[in-house]
Amino acid sequence: MPTMAPDPSLLLLLLLFLSPTNSAAAVSPSPSPPSATTPTPSSPVSSSTLDPKQLRALQSLNIPTSKDPCSSHSRPSTTTCDSSTPFRHLISLTLSNCSDDVALSLTALKSLSTLTSLNFINCPISPIRFPSDLASNLHSFTCINSLKKLTGVWLSRLQNVTELTVSRVSITASGPTIILSGMKFLHSVTLSQTNLSGYLPKHWHPNLTFVDLSGNHLKGKIPLSLTRLENLAHLNLSSNSLNETIPTTIGDLASLQNLSLASNSLSGPIPDSLAALPGLVHLDLGSNQLNGTIPNFIRDMKKLKYLNLASNNFHGVLPFNATFIKGLEVFKVGENSNLCYNRSTLGSKVKLGIAPCDRHGLPMSPPPAKDSSFDDSSDSSDDEDYSNVEEKKHHSGPSKVVLGVAIGLSSIVFLIVFLVLLSKCCK
Ligand SMILES: *[C@@H]1O[C@H](CO)[C@@H](O)[C@H](O)[C@H]1NC(C)=O
Ligand SMILES: *[C@@H]1O[C@H](CO)[C@@H](O)[C@H](O)[C@H]1NC(C)=O
Ligand SMILES: *[C@@H]1O[C@H](CO)[C@@H](O)[C@H](O)[C@H]1NC(C)=O
Ligand SMILES: *[C@@H]1O[C@H](CO)[C@@H](O)[C@H](O)[C@H]1NC(C)=O
Ligand SMILES: *[C@@H]1O[C@H](CO)[C@@H](O)[C@H](O)[C@H]1NC(C)=O
Ligand SMILES: *[C@@H]1O[C@H](CO)[C@@H](O)[C@H](O)[C@H]1NC(C)=O
Ligand SMILES: *[C@@H]1O[C@H](CO)[C@@H](O)[C@H](O)[C@H]1NC(C)=O
Ligand SMILES: *[C@@H]1O[C@H](CO)[C@@H](O)[C@H](O)[C@H]1NC(C)=O
Ligand SMILES: *[C@@H]1O[C@H](CO)[C@@H](O)[C@H](O)[C@H]1NC(C)=O
Ligand SMILES: *[C@@H]1O[C@H](CO)[C@@H](O)[C@H](O)[C@H]1NC(C)=O
């Protein structure tokens, strides 16, 4: 107990002792100007500035920069530099919200080939062929709503990338294969909302952890080879035209946390092997033509937070209880016309977008739904508030608060009146 508060002078001493080392260590990204300008003879890094050739290159691209892009936070472009001497070199450049007069030039990009990370965000400028030094140095390339239009051949030259993100840019290519097949170090790939057509690749890099090919025009079936990626944590193939069944080997994706196959034309059942993925957090199979019953094992997925099975052809009794549903952040099962829920486990007032079951586990003719007055009051203990379910908020939450306040206020008024009366009568 007495040792809870340390000696303040000791603390001060500790602070004094620590602070100089801290400011020397935080060289470039420190937001406080003093640390960049204070003479720190022990670190030559902070006195060294960007290679003048690279500075000129940035200026020739009309990228607004400050005098020393290595030591400041210039607004529209963000840069990181290495610590070489006498001049530092750019290793990462992010251009966002570019103005119209930014234009890429081969000469400038040649000077910038030390970059390992290059990112365009909301920069609708014209793309040019990257010099080969730059193309081979890049480990990370991001292009979101930028560079107008890209081709598969253009992207395929970035052979050493480990991270590739292209989103909201149209890509002309026969399919993802031509883009990805040569990228031997790829760990994470996003090609989303690019209008990419064709089929999913047959060969995948074994070290992939993140694959997002959502929002394209990809067709055909999900290849078995995709289910052999044992490090894959995130797979998003939603909003494409994929068909046939979900591979029965989907449960081989032992590291999977997010799975979205929503808005495709997938048919058949939810594979049993999915039971082997207890680490699943996000499962979105909505808007397909999946059928069969909803498997019981889903309710044992302890990490699950998001579950969308809506707009399919599932049938039978929903295998979930109220505790399970309330534990989820998002739960959607609506628009499955042959699916129903058990009123003795979920109560009669739930609004899941499906009908309650009859005695045989078949949907009863749907109640006059979307009406908060629906209440056949057969059992009264089931006023469940599924706050994560769509079509909520019809319930008595707010009115209970109002009622409480009203009761509180009126009792205070009553008390005052009572006291006044009391004081009058007892005079
Ligand atoms: C780019 O513009 C958007 C809005 O147009 C803004 O929200 C965003 O912060 C801007 N980004 C940068 C890095 O300036
Ligand atoms: C990838 O990087 C290595 C060195 O790290 C280099 O030798 C090779 O040429 C690069 N590959 C491509 C396709 O640029
Ligand atoms: C994809 O194509 C649609 C129409 O076919 C178009 O409206 C949309 O802008 C395209 N998306 C991109 C990123 O080019
Ligand atoms: C995959 O990653 C591991 C470790 O990160 C590495 O040893 C292995 O060489 C990589 N495999 C390939 C094919 O790049
Ligand atoms: C999958 O992609 C869609 C469309 O790009 C997006 O709306 C959704 O949030 C993504 N899912 C996950 C789990 O990231
Ligand atoms: C799936 O799509 C492919 C390509 O669009 C088509 O050739 C095939 O017939 C479709 N399969 C089924 C079962 O509809
Ligand atoms: C799962 O998806 C969410 C939302 O898109 C994302 O924030 C999270 O990083 C993803 N998890 C993994 C392991 O990629
Ligand atoms: C599911 O749909 C397929 C056709 O897509 C059909 O062959 C199969 O019998 C259906 N299964 C069930 C249980 O309805
Ligand atoms: C509800 O279902 C979960 C499994 O999802 C189970 O662990 C729990 O015991 C059930 N609760 C009740 C009250 O039946
Ligand atoms: C609904 O649940 C009750 C109690 O758990 C059970 O006795 C009954 O058989 C279930 N009804 C259907 C249709 O599954």
Automatic annotation (TrEMBL):
The chain crosses the membrane at residues 401-422. Residues 37-49 have a biased composition (Low complexity). Residues 23-50, 63-83, 365-393 are annotated as: Disordered. Keywords: Leucine-rich repeat, Membrane, Repeat, Signal, Transmembrane, Transmembrane helix. Residues 1-26 form the signal peptide. It comes from the Eukaryota. Residues 374-388 have a biased composition (Acidic residues). The keyword Transmembrane applies. InterPro entries: Leu-rich_rpt, LRR_dom_sf, RLP_Defense. Coiled coil: none annotated. This is Receptor-like protein 51.
